């Protein structure tokens, strides 16, 4: 009987039996497609080996995140180009000048650690621990839901095959998820120009880094001197790193907010059941497409929407502060505005890897309120100066709120020690004054 004549149940039974026995007569190209991997012999061979290893040695069903690191570094190194001594010297000098300019633009102190120049592979290695921390809640939620659906929805004739296979399903699903994450981070390594480029603190506090190969690619086609581009990007990166070193509570606050949001994600089990009922093992691309579309993640709850709004405000405050400080620090650069505009457009557009990661984690990392937050920081700077502005990062209770972003004048009044006008009180006073001054005698008569 050919594969076309077999029912989906029969094909699924054979697939599971082959996987459980370590067989390799599945279609490797289709498995690679389901994992989001390129259809080349090396990737397919790696995938088969990892899946078989997961079945043999991952008894507890936990996710082996080392696979994400391996996959990410492999992809990052495949497009790597060596940095020339001239580029290294130029970027090191850019960091030195950027530090001096930032001393004039912000009261936030300088870094202790020397800024780094990272290859794409090194960037993947140093940032992967945080990526896996952010992705793990969603990965576990998907694995739990898939195991539950298989237990509840499997046809009677498959129960014997699927008995006690929950951990196997988790192991295989975790392997595919980890390798997908590696793909995403590996692709992202070709897009980012610095440690703080994504907007979240991927590196440890007080750590700044540029990726020379990507800095070079960023400047291509801009018709701007490469030294100016490097200096502008160095200023932005140092400003970002300085902020997180100064506000020592900030990194933990941001990471906690993201992970708590991700833990609140629950997979749509009804959609998962529909997928399981109509799943064609001969077409695993269907599963990948559903995962990539985010169709298994139901609409956000009210609590999640509120958490998301708070997180977006926080990210916007960080990026807005960096924008304003960078603008002041790069005032000497003739083409600073052009580079800044490129950064804004690039940030607004995002990239394919970032979109894919947003699907995996369930969160868009680009702050929606960035423009309003930057305008607030600029108004505060103009009104009370850089020192008072930067004092707002000295404690989490002093950090501006969403209301401050909406109405910067209230924040400025608070920092200036001037009581802000109260529109409601003003309206009441005006109504009372109008009543007292009403001598028209035109009042209602008592019955």
Structure description:
With 447 residues, this protein is an all-alpha fold. It contains 21 helices and two strands. Mean pLDDT is 78; it is low at 7-13, 19-26 and 443-447.
Keywords:
mainly alpha, two-stranded parallel sheet, flat, 447 residues, 21 helices
Side by side, the strands of the main sheet go 1-2
Instruction: Profile the largest sheet.
Output: 2 strands, parallel
Question: How many helical elements?
Answer: 21
Distance between the termini: 99 Å
Q: Which structural class do the helices and strands define?
A: mainly alpha
- Beta-strand content estimate: under 5%
Question: Which term fits the overall shape?
Answer: flat
Furnish the topology, listing elements before pairings.
Elements: H1 8-20, H2 28-34, H3 41-57, H4 66-78, H5 85-105, E1 116-117, H6 120-153, H7 159-162, H8 166-188, E2 209-210, H9 212-219, H10 226-246, H11 250-263, H12 269-278, H13 285-293, H14 302-329, H15 336-349, H16 352-361, H17 370-384, H18 386-391, H19 402-406, H20 408-416, H21 423-436
Parallel strand pairs: 1-2
Helix pairs in contact: 2-3, 2-13, 3-8, 4-6, 4-8, 5-10, 5-14, 6-8, 6-11, 6-12, 8-16, 9-10, 10-14, 11-14, 14-17, 17-20
Summarize the structure.
This protein has helices at 8-20, 28-34, 41-57, 66-78, 85-105, 120-153, 159-162, 166-188, 212-219, 226-246, 250-263, 269-278, 285-293, 302-329, 336-349, 352-361, 370-384, 386-391, 402-406, 408-416, 423-436; strands at 116-117, 209-210.
